[in-house]
Amino acid sequence: MKTGGQLIVEALEANDTDRIFCVPGESYLAVLDALHDSPIRTIVCRQEGGAAMMADCQGRLTGKPGICFVTRGPGATNASAGIHIAMQDSVPLILFIGQVASHAKEREAFQEVDYKRFFGDIAKWVVEIDDASRIPEFVTRAFAVATSGRPGPVVISLPEDMLTSEVEAPTALAHTPVETSPGEAELDRLEALLNAAKRPIAILGGTRWDFQAVQDVTRIAEAWSLPIGCSFRRQMLFDHLHPNYAGDVGIGINPKLAAAIKQADLVLLIGGRMGEMPSSDYTLLKSPYPDQTLVHVHADAGELGRVYRPTLAINASPAAFVRAFARRRGPAAPGWAVETAKLHAAYLEWSTPPQTGPGAVQMGLIMTYLEKALPEDAILTNGAGNYATWVHRFHRFRRFATQAAPTSGSMGYGTPAAVAAKALYPDREVIAFAGDGCFLMNGQEFATAVQYDLPIIVVVVNNGIYGTIRMHQEREYPSRVVATDLKNPDFATLARAYGGHGETVEKTEDFAPAFERARASGKPAIVEIRLDPEAITPTRTLTQIRDKS
Ligand SMILES: Cc1ncc(C[n+]2csc(CCOP(=O)(O)OP(=O)(O)O)c2C)c(N)n1
Q: Where do the H-state alpha helices sit in 295-428?
């Protein structure tokens, strides 16, 4: 006989869980008690949104579900911020929620929420377990659902009395990963379409990639001389210094790359969904009928033909597809190879930071320094804000598992993601980028970094405004500023108050020594950059945007 709490932990162990992220609650004490005797490492967080984002980052970097535990009602609603990210980003995650006891259900008891309705549209599957003997079945199924087809978040609600009940239950078995591979006929057709093309381009996106898959797609790019673009915030899928790399297909895309996609006669879309952001609001590829021949590879049949009608649909995970297609030989010297080289040259030019701009701090020069200072395997995380442009456009990603950023554009992601990334890869450098607005959404997880001795460096780009929104505001309603000014704490003092290391950068030349001191401190650190709000984009000032000059 075992308690529901013990059965939950056993099922997690059977599915290879090494760590969970949580905020405790009285609703799931029986699980916490079972964790006491388990080798699973528990990371206790400061807010459930942060805990869920940490679980998302773990799922994003490993392909295995990140695990998060929260309490009912406010715990669950806080966690929903991370669940929405995992859903839009196709990241495997399992959220466990302590639920009110069965006798109290449907009375709007203390903190009672109907999770099927609450998470209905933002989770892949929601289930409440009423009978503890079915825990092994449901938890193992949750792992399968979260990881197969298009990965996503699963929510499991755990009534309190179910967790304390003692039952006999079958031993939990590990889930069986489900692979979807392309057929030879589809590969033949793709080969024929590529051979007939004059200006093809490939765009990589989505999840279900790994280190090997990135190598395989590199071989494909080389064999076919294909230019490769990475979808919005999926930049770790291709080495930016490889001669076939054409740039990131995201917000503020290089106009030369946008033109190449529009003028391509064949787009090979591997793993991505080409959503509103990467498609420049469905203009690079027109929905539902693209001008280009579209070959769409996706692990979920439901995504094929959902937004774009493909000429050829291949229902396969990116990893399985590139493994199979890497065996095919491309033409010796295709006519488009010249275009591929031109696109890479255009990328190199586009990703060279500006050396001047308004104010005493030049973000361009700081990015140039970081490009030299950071090792190839450094992990960069961020949330949303104009500051992120500096990372996306000027950091040259080299390897898989070096980027964690929400394609859903959620603020507040960078700091908790960095905590999870550092816990996962303690020997690698982990740098979170945040705006002043972005950091204070989940900045309290800096305390988690201190508690677990995870020396991340958070670069807070402080311009004293919710910059992105101010930019839109000045463009649409010039000089009518509402709700975009911020009065901030001293971030370096804040870092020290948490027990970390703090630095303030007021001039460009302060950055390198401040960053090196942060590195040498061995502590979680905040390096605050005081940026002139005029430096709102790498090329345009706030005044120019307001004056349309
Ligand atoms: C959770 C969330 N709330 C609100 C927004 C809308 N939003 C997008 S960017 C932004 C401002 C970001 O400000 P900051 O982090 O200071 O960066 P900056 O743009 O100034 O560089 C806001 C409010 C969002 N994307 N996510």
A: 318-325, 337-350, 363-373, 388-394, 414-424
- Tokens 């239950």 sit at which residue? 169
Give domain status of residue 178, yes or no. no
Share of the chain above pLDDT 70, in %: 100
Task: Report the alpha-carbon distance of residue 406 to residue 413 in Å, rounded.
Answer: 7
Please identify, by atom number, the ligand 1 atom nearest to the C-alpha of residue 462. 16
**For atom 4 of ligand 1, which residue has the closest CA?**
411
Instruction: Give the CATH number, domain containing residue 112.
Output: 3.40.50.970
The answer on 373 and 410 residing in a single domain is yes
Range of the domain at 417: 352-547
Ligand 1 mutation target, pool 232, 411, 530, most atoms within 8 A of CB:
411
Summarize pLDDT for 301-350 with one digit per residue, the tens: 999 999 999 999 999 999 999 999 999 998 888 999 999 999 999 999 99
pTM of the model: 0.98
Which atom of ligand 1 is nearest the CA belonging to 486? 16
> Cα angle at 407 between 404 and 410, to 5 degrees?
85
Residue 49 maps to a domain: yes
As a whole number of angstroms, the distance between CA 301 and CA 321 comes to 14
Asked whether residue 362 falls in the same domain as residue 500, the answer is yes
